[in-house]
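Deliverable D4.2, example record:
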Amino acid sequence: MTSRTDLSGFLKGASVQVDLTRVLLTAARGGVRISRELRRAGLSGETGATGDINVQGEAVKKMDVIANQILVEAFSMAGDVAWVASEEMEEPLALRSGAPYSVLFDPLDGSSSVDTGGSVGSIVSIQRAPHAGGDRREALLQRGSAQSAACYINYGPATTLVLTTGSGAHLFCLDPESEDFILSAQGLRIPEKGKLYATNEGQRTYYHLSTRRLLDFLQTPDRVDGRPYSTRYSGCLVTDVHRILLEGGIYLYPADTRDPKKAHGKLRLLYECAPLAMVVEQAGGKASTGLAPILEVQPTEIHQRVPLYIGSPREVSLAEEFEMGKR
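Output generated by the structure prediction step:
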């Protein structure tokens, strides 16, 4: 019988700090609970909207609320988390003074797909909390390069978790019987160049000229360069980035002109872009705003939005050339 390595055993073998291990295992256990709720959502009346609007100005789905409650409760009980911040909460929540970590998360990315059985995901960023005396802004407004760990969980045909503690990116699959995350691939490496791109082309009219020119380039046939690229877009950031991580290419959610309130794009820096950037870069990929590395952007507010270009180094560098006017 082939031996299996579960998440706890992997983190212990990798000599990850005990307190950070506990936080990561807490995130994983929260993901197990969310996965369980998603499987029964259609039978338990947990599909559809609540009728509320969240701090982002977006309609709240019932599973958004459930997933957020699960993660807040899990980190509250863990004891190693000083602060949590979530896409679904206007303000950060203080948990335990003096605890070593702060955690930021998008509890259920792509939740509009729940009603139709599409893949959805959770994204988690773990930061080292400041020493005693730091206020909540100091605790949470850290560059992505300061993250202690990051992970995402993709709820699809299988539930998968990809994490990094700064020493490579690693893939785990949830065993539905034991409800353990089992190591599936250690040291993931994204292809240097891919053949896919993912973006919401329905919004192309609102994209800036530089972005439209990038898409034109990717769609123009060139056998030597391997174009045109194929497009794959699910509407779930986690699912699309996961595919790009495994197969190569680029995911982009650029700045656009559709909504002046979202002039810098739709995605949030601290709990969407930064953790995904850490994971992808630890797999040899690249993540950018189009003008600067995602991990070097200094946050100024909890729900700050930034453009995102993430994936294979070749395609992200190409996107930067277009966005900087070099092509």
